[in-house]
Amino acid sequence: MTDAAEVGASGPAGTRSRPMTSRFRQREKEILDAAAEVFARKGYSAASVEDVASVVGMLKGSLYYYVDSKEDLLYRLTKVIHQDALETLEATTAVGGTAEDRMRALVRLHFEKLAANIAYTRVFYHEFRHLTGERYVEIVSLRETYERYVVALVEEGQAKGAFCRRRDPHVVMLAVLTLLNSVQQWYRPDGEADMGHLTDEYAAFVVGGLRCPRATRCTCGSQPKEEPR
């Protein structure tokens, strides 16, 4: 999971730079964690900077040493999620192997990172639309980079005969990411679910759904495969 403080204290044009000492980073992470908790619980529109400051145990004025505004908090939270996403792409690419191998890796890593950062995930999923200007454009660009990677992975699997060629790669991408992002609706970090079991089941479901159906004679030209045990 990306350390929230690694996002840094500067953003798009107009935000001021701050000294990135270890003490600053530690305090910034505490503030971002508190903002994620408050925004997830109350909603971005209903929450205030005072709410966040109260959770951290700071005065509102002191909080502004670390952030410029409430939107600045939301921007940094979404940056954490998208930096995690880019790390997932790098790790998935490093796996090598077949498109199936990398799809399994992507599903597992995506799930694990969202579950480890569940409050941030909920804030991004429900509140992202409140970003404005350059910040909104930047986050959309990061999201599109991830989406293009998934589409390319599906297309590669289709070209190699591993995935059914009758599937629309763009629709598959939307379905896979919607499935994974729904983790924020039900996952509880203090629950009894085993992470390894959950990620294995999600990976098997996604990869199995991309193959040609074994119960029918598919005309796309791909060869259905059994799920490895």
Structure description:
- The protein is mainly α.
- It folds into two domains: 4-70, Homeodomain-like (Arc Repressor Mutant, subunit A); 71-210, Orthogonal Bundle (Tetracycline Repressor, domain 2).
- Helix content is 64%, strand content 0%.
- The chain is built from ten helices and no strands.
- Helix 1 (22-42) crosses helix 6, helix 5 (99-116) runs antiparallel to helix 7 and helix 5 packs across helix 10.
- The longest helix has 27 residues, at 133-159.
- It starts with 21 loop residues before the first helix and ends in a 19-residue tail after the last helix.
- Residues 3-10 have low confidence and may be disordered.
Q: Which parts are unreliable, with pLDDT below 50 for 5 consecutive residues or more?
A: 3-10
Q: Considering the protein shown, what is the CATH homologous superfamily of the largest domain?
A: Tetracycline Repressor, domain 2
**Largest sheet properties:** none
Mean pLDDT: 87
The number of domains: 2
CA-based gyration radius: 20 Å
Choose one word for the global shape.
elongated
What fraction strand?
Answer: under 5%
Proportion in helices: 55-70%
Per DSSP, the total helix count is: 10
CATH topology heading of the largest domain: Tetracycline Repressor, domain 2
Text of the CATH class of the largest domain: Mainly Alpha
